[in-house]
Amino acid sequence: MLVRDEDSGQPVGGLLGHTSYGLFFLDLFYLPDELRGSSLGSRVIGLAEAEARQRGCAAAFVYTVTFQAPGFYERHGYRRFGEIDCSPDGATRIFLTKTLD
């Protein structure tokens, strides 16, 4: 799913994921700073989860790093189920899941 600049039509962000055996894997999600906090991210993840449900997925999975956006996913109903220390020093890779009702 691409997010395009309203004026130029050029891609500026988006979401990449895949489904397999009833699971939605959110592989990559990026929005530039100027588009964050505008509810656009909520709309994009909601559309991706809706597509996953249409494909028969019962759950979603994503991992992120402490300095990225774990709070964003938690605000959207994802719960932590594991953590692993990673680079750079002091960072943690966080694994999250969500039931898709």
Report on this structure.
- The protein is α+β, with helices and mostly antiparallel strands.
- Helices cover 21% and strands 45% of the residues.
- The chain is built from 2 helices and 6 strands.
- Strands 1-2-3-4-6-5 form a 6-stranded mixed sheet.
- β1 and β2 form a beta hairpin.
- The model has no long low-confidence stretch (mean pLDDT 93).
Q: What tags apply to this protein structure?
A:
21% helix, single chain, 101 residues, alpha+beta, six-stranded mixed β-sheet
> Radius of gyration, Cα only, in angstroms?
14 Å
Distance between the termini: 22 Å
- The helix fraction, in percent, is 10-25%
Number of strands: 6
Order of helices and strands: EEEHEHEE
Shape: globular
Helical segment count: 2
Q: Spatial order of the strands in the main sheet? A: 1-2-3-4-6-5
Query: Largest sheet, if any?
Result: 6 strands, mixed
Strand fraction: 35-45%
Mean pLDDT: 93
- Content-based structural category: alpha+beta
